[in-house]
Design a protein that fits this description.
The protein is α+β, with helices and mostly antiparallel strands. Helices cover 25% and strands 28% of the residues. The protein contains 7 helices and 10 strands.
Length: 244
């Protein structure tokens, strides 16, 4: 109770000092130089949080807008959950096929990592407008000085709305139109596997083949596509990782 009350007082104090009334919650950032800084996070719509994060320093005297070129991760707590975003590199099929840096929400960590990617269900409604805006957008890459990571610089340069809207990763995702894709990644490897188009359970059996007991249960159709988080937990346990 005392901890919760202290966190609540911290939030009110930071909000007052920062001079705004948006929803904020205790959180942290991990810089490109591996420094972990605590403070508070301003909560935005989830797709926007894939592009950038608004961080308030612990003293409440500075609000910083940071992106995935500057940070390795950020996270925050709510009454319902602990939320963690990881900076990743992905080719989203736009801006000439250039690799982009963004944050993905990590749902599960371990030998197999599960991520959530948010995309706009009507992204292709006006493709020419979006393509034009993206082509005119300056390169947002920021040089990283590992000795002095650039987290002390407030960056409020307006970001084009088109870059806060993310495309579906495949034609299957576009047809499904759910606005959410679940992605798998092997720990330490760069590539992601989109599970939206999986032929379940066949593709799941292939992905989790190095856990024979799980593969057998998949073959016996004891799991469904909606059970993916449970599958990942069991797979990670099979690999000797603690539950997350």
């Amino acid at each position: 109770m005392l901890l919760a009350r202290s966190s609540g007082l911290l939030i009110l104090l930071l909000a007052g000092r920062a001079g705004f009334s948006q929803k904020i919650t205790p959180g942290y950032i991990v810089t490109a130089g591996q420094d972990s800084l605590r403070g508070a996070i301003v909560i935005h719509e989830e797709a926007a949080q894939q592009k950038q994060v608004d961080f308030i320093t612990a003293r409440g005297n500075q609000r910083q807008r940071l992106d995935a070129y500057q940070l390795k991760a950020y996270g925050y707590t709510t009454e319902q959950d602990t939320v963690r975003y990881i900076a990743v590199s992905m080719n989203l099929g736009r801006d000439g096929g250039k690799t982009e840096r963004l944050f993905l929400r990590q749902l599960l960590a371990g030998p197999a990592e599960l991520y959530q990617y948010r995309y706009s269900r009507d992204y292709f409604a006006q493709p020419s407008r979006i393509a034009t805006e993206v082509s005119r957008t300056p390169n947002l890459t920021i040089p990283v000085n590992t000795a002095h990571p650039p987290v002390a610089v407030s960056r409020f340069t307006p970001v084009p709305a088109s870059l806060l809207v993310f495309p579906p990763l495949s034609a299957t995702s576009a047809r499904a139109g759910t606005g959410i894709s679940l992605l798998l990644r092997r720990h330490g490897q760069p590539g992601f596997t989109e599970t939206t188009w999986w032929n379940f359970p066949t593709d799941a059996m292939t992905y989790f083949a190095d856990c024979p007991a799980l593969a057998l249960d998949l073959q016996a159709k004891r799991y469904h596509a909606r059970d993916l988080p449970q599958l990942v937990r069991r797979y990670n346990s099979c690999q000797g990782a603690p539950a997350h």
